[in-house]
Amino acid sequence: MRAVKRRRLVEAVERYQTVLVWCLFALFAAICSPQTAHAASPEPKRVMILHSFGQDFRPWAEYARAIRAELIRQSPWPLDIHDHSLVTARSTDEDTEVPFVNYLMALGAKHPPDLIICVGAPAANFVQRQRDRLFPATPVVITAIEQRRVNFARLGENDTVVSVSHDFSASFANILRVLPETNKIIIVIGTSPNERFWLEEVRKEMPPFENRVEFSWTDKIPFEEFLRAASALPQHTVLFWGLMNVDAAGIVHEGGSALKRLHAVANAPIFSYDDGFFGDELVGGPMHSVAGGSRRTADVAVRILGGEKAGDIRLPPTRYAAAKFDWRQMQRWGISESSLPPDSQVYFREPSVWETYRWQVAMVCLVVLLQAVLISVLLYERRRRRFAEVEARRRMSELAHVNRYSTAGELTASIAHELNQPLGSILVNTETAALMLEQPSLNTKELKEILSDIRRDDQRAGEVIRRLRSLLMRTPFEAREIDLNEVITEALDLVSGLTHARDVTVESILPAEPLRVRGDRIQLQQVLLNLIINAADAMEHLGKSHRRMVVRAAQDRGFAEIEIVDNGPGILAANLSEVFEPLFTTKPNGMGMGLSIARTIVEAHDGQISAENRAGQGAAFRIRLPLAPSAGAAA
Ligand code: ADP
Q: Most-buried pick from 223, 502, 531, 545 (CB within 10 A)?
């Protein structure tokens, strides 16, 4: 019984081992099978792109490039894209199509394409004509084509169309909107079958505009010839770029060179209907969008590659996208932004200086502003200072005037004395003359002498009064070239009465040549009077024989120097630095303004005034004034 059980157990284990081995084998086989390898790395989807004319004809080249990029971006599968160009579409010779079909079929014999995309009307027409022979089982997307160029009757269940709808009337209306003075539109178009078809279509839309605009077209003119004419087009002419694939001379124009060359020479703005041409040469307007059309095409292609039936996808043609304009062309042709249709986009706008150098401009403005503020403040300060200077000078003048009055007050006694003398003489002389007139024999000679004395005394008295009046005159500061010798002499004459009354001997030592300085005569005279009266005051308590004052003037290295030296007690050492301060006085009835005013006047003349005690006795006051330039030159 036990042996039976053991045998069954061994059999179960053996069965289990067999199942395990088979499972491992199956797993290994599954890993190595080609289907699994296929799932890990799927077959690429083969896409044949069929170009009209060639790979670099505008605007189709722009569409082909954008479709390719968008397809690669959207496709979840690896793609094997190969391009073929329908060179045969450049002419009407359809016989050459058959070998081309055979060539394509031979290429795809082993691996037929999963999808054919034909770009542009010529490619579409070719495919539709040859559809039965050209990979009939492969789906076809016809794109970058105007709906009028599609043979909808021949669309099979494997075919679909991503088309657009041209609206030339909208293009002409746009031209007249932005350039209302336009009176001539030239349609630039070639002569290939496709271009001839489109010329006829464009002409159908001209009549409503013919009352405003004269139309012409270039299909009969070789492009080179038209280029020559394009530089001298009449004013208010506009060029409408249709197509220029094959011109009247049979020359094929690849890429964008034709439009570029026309733009380089044309003296008229260029418009078009497709933004495949937009970017340098066109002014702009409502146009088909390459980006929009290519995105739609790639959407449809991916849906078909994913298994959707091409014939089930039926899309309406797209119309023009919102208008776009080239700012540079707008500037060139004087088109204002306000004349653009609403919702227009303006491209290539050159940034303004402000937009490019915002920070730099802001900084410069700030610096200029700060500078302007600083300059204004400085100018204001300067004006205030000038004003203050003028005001100070005016006050000083007034103060000096008051000071002169007080000086004149001090001089009253001596002036009265001075006047007394000539007046007394005049009286005596007139009495003598009266007596002589009573004499029987008139001594006319003596009488003449008496009259002459009277005149002299009168002049002397008049001179005293003139000097006093000029001292008391209120005159503004006036700098003139003056001779200091004269000023000193006149000042001494004015105080002569005072010095005489006080028994002060005055010695004046003046240079023989004039001492020329620039200054105000009255004010400088006032300075001298203050110093002379102070010197006389200082010697008041001396014995009469000791009252001696020296007034000395000389030239010293470009300066006129005047020294007034007295025999008085001098200035206390402690007061030396203060005597020029306003209101400093040691006199019982003094005002303490004389020296302060003297310093102000001397400094206003760019000079210096100083005081010192003499070694022996007395004080010495020294004034230094710059010599007038003419005096300096003479010296
Ligand atoms: P005031 O004559 O009214 O006092 P000043 O300004 O002319 O005012 O003079 C100020 C003071 O300077 C005088 O009070 C005097 O003390 C002193 N001072 C001026 N000149 C002399 C001088 N020659 N000798 C001595 N002291 C003088």
A: 531
